[in-house]
Each structure stands twice: as structure tokens, then as C-alpha cells.
Amino acid sequence: MREIDCDVAVIGAGTAGIAAHRAALADGARSVLIEQGPGGTTCARVGCMPSKLLIHAAEVAHTARNADAFGLRVADVRVDGPAVLKRLRRLRDDFVASVFEGLDDLPAESRLMGRAVFEGPETLRIDDHTRLRFKAAVIATGSSPSVPEPLRGLGERVLTTDTVFEIEDLPDSLAVLGAGPVGLELAQAMARLGVRVSVFDPGDSLGGLRDPDLTGAAREIFSSAFDLHLGTEIEAGEPDGEGVRLSWKGGSGPFDRVLSAAGRPPNVHGLGLEATGATLDERGSPAFDSRSQRCEDTRLFIAGDANADRPILHEASRQGRIAGRNAARLAAGEGVERPERWVMLAMVFSQPQIASVGGGFDPEAGYRVGRADFCDQGRARVMDRAQGGLRLYAEPGGRLVGAEMIGPEVEHLAHLVAHAVQDGLDAKTFRDRPFYHPTLEEALDTALADLIERDG
Ligand SMILES: Cc1cc2nc3c(=O)[nH]c(=O)nc-3n(C[C@H](O)[C@H](O)[C@H](O)COP(=O)(O)OP(=O)(O)OC[C@H]3O[C@@H](n4cnc5c(N)ncnc54)[C@H](O)[C@@H]3O)c2cc1C
Ligand SMILES: NC(=O)c1ccc[n+]([C@@H]2O[C@H](COP(=O)([O-])OP(=O)(O)OC[C@H]3O[C@@H](n4cnc5c(N)ncnc54)[C@H](O)[C@@H]3O)[C@@H](O)[C@H]2O)c1
């Protein structure tokens, strides 16, 4: 067993880990980045990028099929499943390759391959080949898809996002367990590509929406896109020919494949965290400060999906940078920094899109609500996408705190609102800005006007 010393050990070469490693090196620390798998990041290999490639192919198919609404006759739209998936993998491989290219400038001796496990508060073992002593460590181990109990033992019939992008052809039918961002995006894409899709979720929401008005709108919109079973848990699954038969209260049915999209628990088990002295909660996750990323007064930091706080890409990247820099500072005997958090911004790339800013709707907070609907919004009607709505939340007095929205291209509106919230704008100040005509942004102007009127 090789014995090595370093200042900072970073576990996991995903988005958070790469950012942490770079930040620690930039701060002058001897940093080591450890990766157990093929690398290339979850985002590029099995997450953001392949899912968006599938979604975009599905949007093109949908647009072609619905061109009639514009007086355009498009005949015979046929989905060539193997070709869709081949293009997806070709571009996905490019994105993964560009992640590796981005690592080329890092010193080779600063990277280790293997599974890291803590042996003590300052020691890691990497497989059986290396013992690494560190002054500070960053846990950036990401998260993994969960598979609900009734689906275990069904083998390859059950897909997760780790495997769904590898299938050679689209199935005829697919049951999707989970109506969160992953489930909703992939269910709609598959349905638009001609797969018979059924979605099951024990909850009553879609895509993380909380606002009751918007949740209702989402239910209506998506139940016309696929077979939707909210408030429904799958009780049993058994092999059925090449496929699976699922049973739920009040029903059962055969499916070619099942996609488990029932959440992504953080990868903290089997890491040896018990040996570090960190306080662990009942799920084995260490307590940490969401500004410095430090795990209490230990030498550990945790960033990205591993801390399950905000499992989205831009947060993984920023948290990684903060953790890496702070780990380098701690290793050098300096104090850690606690930068202000960014406002929470999350979206779902369904059609219509869903977005939430500042944590979204909070029934307890007594916020003022400004409303706009896309159903009669000019630009949305031009696009034949007049569905959904926008809700802005503000403190009494007008300071904006967040928003939820479901509607056409709301990714752009959500950014505007997020920046306004982070800049501490009130509704009147935000409204005293240009809103071009005819744009979707005019819905924001309408919601701000409504908010100002309600707030007096
Ligand atoms: C289908 C899907 C679509 C998504 N779409 C979006 C989107 O559109 N926008 C968005 O913002 N977010 C999206 N996300 C979320 C986003 O991908 C994640 O938040 C982000 O990739 C997390 O990065 P990370 O660095 O925390 O983890 P990862 O990139 O998973 O990196 C963790 C790394 O740690 C390694 N590792 C784990 N344990 C060990 C160990 N013991 N030793 C050594 N190495 C170890 C793993 O092999 C892995 O390489 C999506 C996720 C999925 C699944
Ligand atoms: N567009 C994006 O930015 C994007 C896209 C995909 C994922 N992500 C990120 O990845 C994270 C994980 O997404 P996710 O959708 O996998 O998880 P999630 O935790 O957000 O949603 C999981 C859903 O599965 C349901 N569920 C739980 N147990 C179930 C069961 N036994 N059967 C059926 N349904 C069950 C839950 O009620 C919930 O609705 C998200 O929080 C998000 O941050 C982001």
C-alpha cells in the first residue's frame, strides 16, 4: 500500500469535485482528486445533457405533429427510435469528452483512481492501493437513483437514469415511477416519441410545484400528455414475458419497461464517515454549514448532490468552489469563508416548463401573491402555447422573495425573478424596468402590477 500526504483530498470527480479541486489548487494547496468510476460527471454522462437531448428530439416530433394548428401540413411524422438514441449518445459522448479535455491541464499526479473510504478523521484508503493522509477533505460523491422496493429483483426490466440512455430502441410502453423533475421530463419526452407512458407517484404534485393553483394546472396539462396516477403507489411488480406487470391500489397493467425516477439519495453510505468524528443524521449524512460547506468543526467539507441540499448543477459547481477554497484555507491554518447563498433557482424542462425561485410557494409565510396567467397572454397565444401561470411572492411592503411558474419558456422569466430576488428588489422597483412587447416577459409585468395593486 502506497502512503501519500496531501493538503486537500477531494472525493468524486463530478461537477462539485472538479470545481473543489481546481479551487484548492488555485489557492496553492496540494490537492488530490479521487474518482471511482468512469468519470465525465453525472451531468454530462447520465443527467442534464442526455436528458435534454432526448427532450429536444421529442419537442421536434411534437412540433412537427402539431404544425396543423399553424396551417402547416406535415405528413407522416415517424420516430426512428434507434436513430434518436444514437444521436443522443453521439452528442452525449462529445459532452463527456469535453469534461475530460477540461481536466487535461491538471497535474496527472494530482488525480487518483479508485474508491475512497475514510479510515479516520485525517486518512482515506483508496481501493487497496493507496493510503492518503489529508489536512482537509471535500466529500463530493454525488447521488444515485433509488429503486423502490417492489421493483427490486426485476433486473434489466427496470431502468434508471444510469441505464435508460443506453437502450438501443424505444420501448412500446413505459411505467415511470416518480413525477419529480427526472420523471416528468423523461415521461413527457418518451410520450412525445410515441411510447405509451404511465406515471405513478404517491404524492400529489408534479415537477416539485407547491402552489395549489399551479399544481392544479400542471395536473390538467400533463394528464392529457400521458396516463397520470398521482397519489398512487406501486405495490408489486413481477416479470411478465419480456416486460413487467405492475400492481397498484385499484389496478394493474403490463409494461415493456419501468423507469425508476423516485429520487436520488446522496452517496454517503459505505464512505466510512463513522470513522471521521462527524455528526451523522439518521440517514448517515453529516451535519454541515450550507454557506461554508464545512461539516461542523471537522476537517471535512461536503458539496453538490452529496449534501442533498440543492441537487442542481449550478449549485454543485458553486458549492464545490467554496468547499475547495475553504479546504485549502483550513489546511493552511486559516479560517473558512461563509459567502452568502445564491437565491434558490430550480427548473424542469418539460413543456410547458416549470420553475421555482427562492424555494417557491410557502403556505405558512403569509406572503402577498401576484398572479398572471399564460392562457390569455399574447405571445403565448402566438406560439400556440397558451397554458399555465405565474405566481410571484413578496413580503408585505413589496420585497420579492420568490416565484413559481409553469408556462412557455419560463426558464428566462425565472432567471429575471431570481436576479431581482437576490438583488433585494421590491415589486415597484422591479416593475420600473422595460418589458418589451410582445414577449413572454410581459406576464411578469402583469404579475408585478397585480402584486402592487394587492399590496396597496
Ligand atoms: C436525468 C437527470 C437530469 C438532470 N438535469 C439537470 C438539469 O437540467 N439542470 C440541473 O441543474 N441539474 C440537473 N440534474 C442534476 C445534476 O446533474 C446534479 O445536481 C449534478 O450533476 C451533481 O453533481 P455532483 O458533482 O454533486 O455529483 P456527480 O457528478 O455525480 O459526481 C460525483 C462523483 O463522485 C464519485 N464517487 C462517489 N463515491 C466515491 C468514492 N467513495 N470514491 C471516489 N469517487 C466517488 C462518483 O463516481 C461520481 O463521479 C439532473 C440529474 C439527472 C439525474
Ligand atoms: N431540470 C432540472 O434541473 C433537473 C432535471 C432532473 C433532475 N434534477 C435534479 O435532480 C434531483 C432529483 O430528481 P428526481 O426527480 O429524481 O427526484 P425528486 O426527489 O425531486 O422527485 C422524486 C419523486 O418521486 C416520488 N416518489 C418517491 N417514492 C416513490 C415511489 N416509491 N414510487 C413512485 N414515486 C415515488 C416522489 O414523491 C417525488 O415526486 C432533483 O431534485 C433536481 O434537483 C434537475
TrEMBL record:
Keyword Translocase: no
Coiled coil: none
SUPFAM superfamilies for the chain: FAD/NAD(P)-binding domain (SSF51905), FAD/NAD-linked reductases, dimerisation (C-terminal) domain (SSF55424)
Cofactor annotation: FAD
Stored Gene3D superfamilies: 3.30.390.30, FAD/NAD(P)-binding domain (3.50.50.60), Fe,Mn superoxide dismutase (SOD) domain (1.10.287.990)
Residues at which FAD binds: 52, 141-143
Catalytic site: 437 (proton acceptor)
Swiss-Prot/TrEMBL keywords: FAD, Flavoprotein, NAD, Nucleotide-binding
Disulfide bond sites: 43-48
Source domain of life: Bacteria
Occurrences of domain Pyridine nucleotide-disulphide oxidoreductase dimerisation (ranges): 346-447
Binding residues annotated for NAD(+), in chain numbering: 178-185, 263, 305
Domain FAD/NAD(P)-binding: 7-320
One Pfam short name: Pyr_redox_2
Entries under NCBIfam families matching the protein: PRK06292.1-1
Protein name: Dihydrolipoamide dehydrogenase
